Amino acid sequence: MLFSGLPDEAFDRTLQPIDHFIFPPGCLLHESGRSGEFIFSIRRGLVKLINIAPGGVQRIVRLLGPGSSVGLELLDGEKGYRHPVVAVNEVDVCRIPVTTVKQLQADYPVLHDQVRERLQEQLDRADDWIVSMGTGPAKERVVNLLLMLGEICGDGNGDIEMLHLDDMAAIVGTSIETVSRIIAELKRHHLVYKVANHLYRLDRGALSVIIGDTAG
Amino acid sequence: MLFSGLPDEAFDRTLQPIDHFIFPPGCLLHESGRSGEFIFSIRRGLVKLINIAPGGVQRIVRLLGPGSSVGLELLDGEKGYRHPVVAVNEVDVCRIPVTTVKQLQADYPVLHDQVRERLQEQLDRADDWIVSMGTGPAKERVVNLLLMLGEICGDGNGDIEMLHLDDMAAIVGTSIETVSRIIAELKRHHLVYKVANHLYRLDRGALSVIIGDTAG
DNA sequence: CGAGGGGTTGACGCCGATCAAAGCTGGTGG
DNA sequence: CCACCAGCTTTGATCGGCGTCAACCCCTCG
User: Which residues of the protein are close to the nucleic strand C, CB under 7 angstroms?
Assistant: First the structure.
């Protein structure tokens, strides 16, 4: 969590409350309060940061799971969020007023480091995204996405909650038909197989071979 | 600069010196000192952050110009840089020991904000990159790149220093031949024309039409 | 049972990768 | 001052991957 490392009494004097929310899939996080006043810390589930190009085409620029923070850009004093943020699964978040974070940063300098590490983590994620989702044939990109899903919200078994086709297409930058064909082929070769409704298991070793990762 | 907002006397007690370097094109910044000890602040010129995939394929994940900082990830206590950083032009930088930044952060909390803003700026840049360089036909991506070059290191006239084909290809994710054909076509239509050796001028209005930016 | 939304599958055309070869250009040495 | 060479750029020909359009399937829900 964003506040790990802070003592419990740190929160005794916060002027505004830290609330806990649960969003259903497809819900826009920002609507839970007036725009640009809250930072969210994700406890469970998956959210997508989307970019809407002039023309209406959507592209997903990041997936964030448990432990990640949303809205840190508000600390720079700007009014709005950079991207619309939408729940993919059912999502469990802490909603923290920006003023509370600023206040706590002043009282506990270690929080500065926490915030910086979150930002750095997102930057690393974005760089990885540029390489994984922006390069190579469609098949490699889809496989990269599946493996990344396992890392972000893997449940230990290596099972992932499969996204909808349009989300995956908006991530890897292809048409939904192409994604459908690729995943169908992966299923035929038993590199991906269903274990429950929307829950799929990955053969990570075999998938890693496809993207040419000789380190397995 | 990274230290704007700090008083001059802040640097009187720094244990290690802040040096000034000039790198020729193609030079790896990290080699100027032992690995993982320095943060660079760019004063002039352009650097590229590159990612080398297993297999040797290079992809450029970011271009940084004057005002940007390189190596902020070292503040997280890790040993190495995330990406190799290579000078594109002749580059003018300040080399700042990580320990100096940490020391100054402790003495001047406002520096925490400066660092956070730099990170946020790079995150915004990365997100924009994902959209601009990862979506749409090759022509749009190249035009986006040219316009972005003008923003990062524009000299006011709207002139840009043209990159080499292989760099542009590594940015937009196409072959060098495709980039060459696209730029040749732009020249034919007088949307781009040479004003000096490697210096080109852009017709921004007309180029904006290509990428469908109705706000032009 | 019918409607609708997502997923699947096929046919076809085009964009862009690839291979190949021919200009250009700047640097080097005679 | 010129010839030469290496690396970069340009251009052409060909081919495959993937976008697009269209039809169909399947599951859910009213």
Answer: A 164-166, 176-177, 180-181, 183-184; B 137-139, 173-175, 177-178, 197
